[in-house]
Amino acid sequence: MTRQQAIDQFVEIAVAEIGTREEGGNNCGAEIRAYQSATWLKPDPWAWCAAFVCWVMMKWLISKEVCELLSLKDQPAVEKFRCRDATAFGFEKWALKRNIKIYPETELAKKGDIVVFDFSHIGIVTEDQVIGIKTIKTVDGNTNGKGDRDSVSGDGVWAKERKKDLVKSLIRIL
After folding, report:
1. Structural domains present in the chain
2. With left for phi above 0 and alpha for psi between -120 and 50, is residue 142 left, alpha or beta?
3. Contact, 67 vs 78, CB < 8 A?
């Protein structure tokens, strides 16, 4: 598996979840609980944008080829590596501890980057940002079709196009 194939696989896992919606109340539903189960926290009605990214990473790391690319030799190494933080800003701390590249908002976003937004939100970049374009395309959990993100108005997994000036950092695993 090439680096690009692994990045494509990461994004494909996220994109396949577009359309997943909360059920039975705010921050509720079987799929939302599955996302939340990928974190350290007990599933409950809490904001789940970071949990969605944790879940995508967990599914991605099932691939032996991806693990080989990341030099993760066995399941304990995978579990030690993967992020389980339920907060957007916690992903930066996770990346720092693992010497994973964190880029400032001035860097062009690349497909497969984990994007941390200034407003305590997180998503996965689905396309390379083009020079001169001031937006990035992402897949986010706990957001909605209007562009809002919070535990009150977020209702599912959506494809988004967000202004680049909302970016706090970009985490590039590969």
Report:
1. 3-172 (3.90.1720)
2. left
3. yes
